[in-house]
Automatic annotation (TrEMBL), chain A:
It comes from Castanea mollissima. GO terms for cellular component: mitochondrial inner membrane peptidase complex. This is Mitochondrial inner membrane protease subunit 2. The lineage of its organism: Eukaryota, Viridiplantae, Streptophyta, Embryophyta, Tracheophyta. Residues 239-260 are annotated as: Disordered. It is a single-pass membrane protein.
From TrEMBL, chain B:
GO terms for cellular component: mitochondrial inner membrane peptidase complex. Belongs to the peptidase S26 family. IMP1 subfamily. This is Peptidase S26 domain-containing protein. The active site is at residues 48, 92. Keywords: Hydrolase, Membrane, Mitochondrion, Mitochondrion inner membrane. It comes from Castanea mollissima. The lineage of its organism: Eukaryota, Viridiplantae, Streptophyta, Embryophyta, Tracheophyta. GO terms for molecular function: serine-type endopeptidase activity.
Length: 260, 164
């Protein structure tokens, strides 16, 4: 199939008439001939634009690779750079200011939208759909989240279909403490590994909290996860299934309290 | 000797299988890109958009170009991922864009007015009596919009663009 337009390009060169493709188009023929004639017209037009069959083949290869790459990055996995320090020290720890971390984002989670506490996700910002942010899921639908607002504590229940996201670096992170819980439909992928720079290749970036069984399994994954556990352990208590867990992430923006 | 000839046949057969598989894979990629970035047919059903869309199901064409370039506006029928269940896609009409003031009635006796926040849209079904929409779950972020419905393909007597 790759060589089909090329073959018909040659045929066009031999015949060298403009009238032939038009006649082919208007002719009542079997659909196969119709497709072939359209291809030949397309090849003829493309050749007029690009000037040689080699360029045509290159263009075709480029388009094919583009389509395949787009499909893979939409359905399976893609690699994205992490900008900013809102997820230090998990990504972009302060020591290196010259290069961004590149992470692997997997899209298999979008089939069922099942996430766990502690998953780092990529999502579209609710205030500007063109921006994407990377934050960690702290609370899932139905969880109660405790926040501090003007020095008095307040408790919010995360509505159905939403989640509460926060950056690991609470001091400089625009997250659910400003814009509230986000619908899970905005999540575009889950971060599993760091792939660049080479000295920080690692992961998988696991859930760092949850039932005590999950906690134990994360301890042997090296210093990155160990640091995460230490930094975040004061935020979470181990979850007991029959008690609503109250989570205390950080100060809350006032506008959130009027929503419910 | 026979083994060598079998290997030769196997090799050519394997090459042909790979070529055919590559063609199918490329076609599926083209299908995916067309469905997600250009135009896709969708079956929509439910009572919330009567009389515009039927109860038992219409096949409509939705285009996925406008919402990426920000051209979705008031009055458009859009496909929106539900904020309550991310696995479901709803079909509703956009009644207010960000910054608009929207008045609505959840209960026929009691009306309310809100301003749509930045980056969000207010969606409502045309059949306000049987629709769960922004009047119940609030304004939805623009990022949840999946596409804009512009044409109906089935049933045949409804073939054509949707009337306002």
């Amino acid at each position: 199939m790759n060589l089909l337009p090329l073959a018909f390009f040659n045929k066009k060169k031999i015949e060298d008439k403009l009238g032939k493709p038009l006649r082919l188009l208007t002719q009542r023929s079997r659909s196969r001939q119709h497709n072939i004639s359209l291809l030949s017209v397309g090849a003829f037009a493309a050749t007029a634009l690009f000037g040689s069959p080699k360029h045509l083949v290159l263009l075709q290869r480029f388009l094919t690779c583009g389509l395949i790459g787009l499909t893979i990055s939409d359905r399976y996995a893609s690699i994205v750079p992490v900008r900013g320090a809102s997820m230090s020290p998990t990504f972009n720890p302060q020591a290196r200011n010259f290069t961004d971390d590149y992470v692997l984002v997997e899209k298999f989670c979008l089939k069922k939208y099942e996430f766990s506490h502690g998953d780092v996700v990529v999502f579209c910002s609710p205030s500007n759909h063109k921006e994407k942010h990377i934050k960690r899921i702290i609370a899932l639908p139905g969880d109660w989240i405790g926040t501090t607002h003007n020095s008095h504590d307040d408790v919010l229940k995360v509505p159905k279909g939403h989640c509460w996201v926060e950056g690991d670096n609470s001091a400089s992170s625009m997250d659910s403490r400003s814009f509230g819980p986000i619908p899970l439909g905005l999540v575009k992928g889950r971060v599993t590994h760091v792939v660049w720079p080479p000295q920080r290749i690692g992961g998988p970036i696991n859930s760092w909290v949850g039932r005590s069984g999950a906690m134990a399994s994360n301890n042997d994954n090296g210093s990155v996860n160990g640091d995460m556990n230490m930094q975040l352990s004061h935020h979470m208590e181990p979850r007991i299934d029959d008690e609503p867990q109250i989570l205390h992430p950080g100060p809350l923006d006032e506008s959130l309290l009027t929503r419910q | 000797m026979r083994l060598l000839s079998y290997m030769g046949q196997w090799k050519s057969a394997a090459k042909e299988v790979l070529d055919r598989t590559a063609i199918v894979a490329k076609f599926l990629c083209l299908l995916h890109v067309t469905n997600n970035y250009l135009c896709s047919p969708t079956l929509v059903y439910g009572p919330s958009m009567l009389p515009t869309l039927n109860l038992t199901g219409d096949v409509v064409l939705a285009e996925h170009v406008s919402h990426r370039i920000g051209k979705v506006g008031t009055g458009d029928v859009v496909l929106v991922r539900s904020p309550v269940d991310p696995r479901r896609i709803l079909t509703k009409r956009v009644v207010g864009m960000e910054g608009d003031t929207v008045s609505f009635y959840v209960d026929p006796m009691y009306g309310q007015t809100t301003v749509v926040p930045k980056g969000h849209v207010w969606i409502q079904g045309d059949n306000t009596y049987a629709s769960s929409d922004s009047r119940h779950f609030g304004p939805v972020p623009y990022g949840l919009i999946q596409g804009k419905v512009f044409f109906r393909v089935w049933p045949p007597d409804g073939f054509g663009t949707l009337e306002q």
